[in-house]
From TrEMBL:
InterPro entries on file: Kinase-like_dom_sf, Leu-rich_rpt, LRR_dom_sf, Malectin-like_Carb-bd_dom, Prot_kinase_dom, Protein_kinase_ATP_BS
Organism for this UniProt entry: Salix purpurea (Purple osier willow)
Pfam families: LRR_1, Malectin_like
Listed GO MF terms: ATP binding; protein kinase activity
GO cellular component: membrane
UniProt name for this protein: TYROSINE KINASE DOMAIN PROTEIN
Transmembrane regions listed in the UniProt entry: 426-450
Binding site for ATP: K521
PANTHER family associated with the record: OS07G0107800 PROTEIN-RELATED, REPEAT FAMILY PROTEIN, PUTATIVE, EXPRESSED-RELATED
Bilayer disposition of the protein: Single-pass membrane protein
Length: 539
């Protein structure tokens, strides 16, 4: 991975983190706009894709110029820890290089970057006096486990005074690492004696004095010998060297070295696999393109996570995201979920069982096309305090007792009602039917009385209009209520719907502001029914 220049005003340069999936890899700091920063990571691919995230910029904006992937064969960098750790390349140096250019593909078939010791890679300093560069054009047999490129092995440094020494910085350390040195006898002149030397690590006496005999270890000239440690604790500033043994007639030789740090893999959030399944349902949506772990290194824009070592999703905000189909069943497996916002979509089907989400406090499903009943399992959510399901197509009875613990909004679901209201609604329907029957009988009786009255009082004066109101669901014998003319006109929409008539007037349908359905009986001026008789009926 390479980072070029991306300066800001006032010569402020970017500094940000880079992660592989949920695992923090490195912190990138660009201090020189003319210098390319390259970092490498060796990992065992567990799937066909890998997520790389740039985040947490402390200055400037995160950026990347190149992202390259190279495949190794199975034996290169094989360790016993590859399922638990990545290898972050800290130093890979070509000693005795004949130029300042790094060696990589096509000289290295795996395109590893071998930095020249001439550019003081890793701040390589404290070079021992008498250090000499040597090289050869002879082919080198490098067909061993790590297979460094032949071009790298054709150059080396030799300690003419009997020793080699260096000091360098190891990015990412202190920590546990993997360290190897590469040797090949390449001096073309006839040897005047054996080349034997020992490793010198001043700060690590326990592993110093490891002896190298190139001719013996490599089984001849122009052949690779790899020597190193698979698990070694190293500091940030490493001092190392080689010193010839007392029975060696030639000084130590070094062709190349490589040091990698073990980077422990982060398993990511507990909900990573679950939410990935949800993402697959909407793989083409813009909001589903963020990739990687939903919580690490930073949460997705529509996700909020807790701060546990293995975080969980606690809030999901997918309001007005054009979601369709049923509510994804995977959401019911988010055991740490506290808030769920799916309002303003086109979700259909029933509300799933969220019993496993015991931490749920807030559910917003309003303004969808959900059907079915409110699941009784909602009563099993001990922390639920807010449930919004208005403007769906839900039906049935609201689970008894849910109103006592939850702020519930279910308006706009015409077939969804509370258990107590269902009885009342049935009473209204029955009352309407009974009321209609009574009205029919009253109309007949009134008509007969009117005919009789006409004979007895042919010159009865006309009376002003009088109006009486009764609720259709009032119990028989209940006292009459008094209402203003304005209330009556509003309820009947200015006497819009006629539902019957009698000898004393017309009956209109109405509905009060509190939802009660009513019948309004209007005494007309040409009705014979007297004011006193009409009032008696009301009372």
């Amino acid at each position: 991975m390479r980072h070029g220049s991306n300066t800001l005003h006032n010569n402020v340069y970017p500094k940000f983190d880079i992660s592989v999936g949920p695992t923090h890899w490195s912190t990138i700091a660009i201090y020189d706009a003319n210098t390319i920063e390259s970092i490498e990571l060796i990992f065992l691919a567990s799937s066909s894709s890998i997520s790389v995230c740039l985040s947490n910029a402390t200055t400037g904006k995160p950026f990347i110029s190149t992202l390259e992937l190279r495949q190794f064969n199975g034996s290169v960098y094989l360790t016993a820890f590859e399922n638990q750790f990545y290898l972050s390349v800290s130093a890979r140096i070509n000693f005795g290089a004949d130029s300042v250019d790094p060696v990589r593909y096509p000289d290295d078939p795996y395109d590893r970057i071998w930095e020249s010791d001439s550019v003081k890679a890793n701040y390589l300093v404290d070079v021992a006096a008498g250090t000499k560069k040597v090289s050869t054009d002879m082919p080198i047999n490098v067909n061993y486990d790590l297979m460094p490129p032949e071009k790298v092995m054709q150059t080396a440094v030799v300690g003419m005074n009997g020793s080699l020494s260096y000091r360098l910085n190891l990015d990412g350390f202190p920590g546990f690492g993997w360290a190897y040195a590469y040797f090949a006898e390449i001096e073309d002149q006839d040897p005047t004696g054996p080349r034997k030397f020992i490793l010198v690590l001043p700060e690590y006496p326990d592993i110093s004095n490891a002896e190298v005999n190139i001719a013996e270890n490599a089984h001849g000239k122009y052949r690779l010998y790899e020597a190193g440690y698979n698990n070694l604790s190293l500091p940030f500033v490493l001092k190392f060297g080689f010193k010839k043994t007392s029975d060696s007639s030639r000084g130590p030789l070094l062709n190349a070295m490589e040091i990698n740090k073990y980077l422990e893999k982060n398993d990511g959030s507990l909900d990573g696999d679950v939410i990935s399944g949800v993402i697959l349902l909407y793989s083409t949506a813009d909001w589903a393109q963020e990739g990687g772990d939903p919580c690490l290194p930073v949460p997705w824009s529509w996700v909020q996570c807790n701060s546990d070592a293995r975080p969980q999703i606690i809030k999901l905000s997918l309001s007005s995201k054009n979601l369709s189909g049923t509510v994804p069943s995977g959401l019911t497996k988010l055991t740490g979920l506290v808030e769920l916002w799916l309002d303003g979509n086109s979700l259909t089907g029933p509300i799933p069982d969220f019993t496993g989400c015991t931490a749920l406090e807030i559910i917003h499903l309003e303004n969808n096309q959900l059907t079915g009943e409110l699941p009784p399992s909602l009563l099993n959510l001990p922390n639920l305090r807010e449930l919004y399901v208005q403007n769906n197509m839900l039906s049935g009875t609201i689970p008894s007792g849910i109103n006592r613990k939850v702020t519930l909004n279910y308006s706009g679901n015409i077939n969804l009602h509370e258990g107590a209201r269902r009885g009342r609604h049935m009473g209204i329907i029955i009352g309407l039917s009974v009321g209609a029957a009574v009205l029919l009988i009253t109309t007949i009786v009134s008509y007969l009385l009117m005919q009789k009255g006409k004979k007895r009082h042919p010159e009865q004066d006309s009376l002003p209009v009088q109006r009486v109101i009764s609720t259709l669901n009032d119990a028989p014998g209940e006292a009459a209520h008094c209402f203003t003319s304005l209330e009556i006109e509003d309820a009947t929409k200015k006497f819009e719907m006629k539902i019957g008539s009698g000898g004393f007037g017309v009956v209109y349908y109405g509905k009060m502001k509190d939802g009660r359905e009513i019948a309004v009986k209007v005494l007309t001026s040409n009705s014979y029914q007297g004011k006193r008789e009409f009032s008696n009926e009301v009372n």
